[in-house]
Design a protein that fits this description.
One of its GO terms (molecular function) is sequence-specific DNA binding. With 307 residues, the chain is α+β, with helices and mostly antiparallel strands. It has 13 helices and nine strands. Helix content is 45%, strand content 18%. Helix 4 (141-152) packs antiparallel against helix 5.
Length: 307
Amino acid sequence: MDILQEHLVRARASGGVFARSIAIAPWGLRLPGTIQLAVHAMIQGRAWLWLDGGDDPIELRPGDLALVRGGPDHFVAHEPGACCVVPEVFRTEHAADGAEHDPRAAVFLCGAYRFAGDIGAGLVNGLPPVFLIPSRMDNPVHGVVELLSRELSQAEPGRQTVLDRLLDVLVVLGLRSGLASSVNAPAWVRGATDARLSLALQAMHGDTSKSWTVDELARMSNMSRATFARVFQEVLGNTPMRYLTDWRMTVARDLLRTQDIPLIEVAERVGYSSLYAFVTAFRRHHGQPPGKWRQSGKDLPEATLAH
């Protein structure tokens, strides 16, 4: 299993919702920063997207796709600085259903997506605050956007299942593109594309319960121990064992927050045969024992997009 797939499986992406909107200027939509990952696709007309307190607005043209990670509120409107309202108000005041053939109309898709736990949050946080995939780029996301728009405009049997699957595909393709070009991307993104390290990284990410050694990982990578350690440090900025410990602690945090299982089972799943050793390592890594972390952990709210 590749590393992005491993993260997506552990992140248990859920709560995706999508809406197709038609509006005639003046119009503006304000979306809360509590949406973990927002997806916007322009189908017809043009719009502008900007963050609350952020940089210059970004123009959205037909075929463009934008991913916006959670944080500040963001806005989509017919022009920069336009008055923007929350989705519930937008639906009653600005929606122009049935007007898609009006040359003045803007037709766009807005989606909200949610990932469970710290691993999902790490995926989203690796993206830029706003990531734009222009229509001129040769990217398969544009074909998915067309299918989404078509399904949202019709009432065919099985429509919701099709929408759910297409949204999943769209988000994965968007994440793939966004992480590959982001300066904030996790270190594993660099390592996963390095042929010298990809097999070792896949092994470390895929089986945190195994007692990996540098010698074993070096053999897997067809390098000497010293060469492997040097290359690993150069590419990922960390030693192999420290990187492995960091990943194990990430998985442990995720298990503690998302699954009601005994601490000893968490310990075993991340490579510790002794509960004492796990608690000691977790406390050293996070400054508090795993039981306290679990009690204080709170997940993100459900994704909402009521328009």
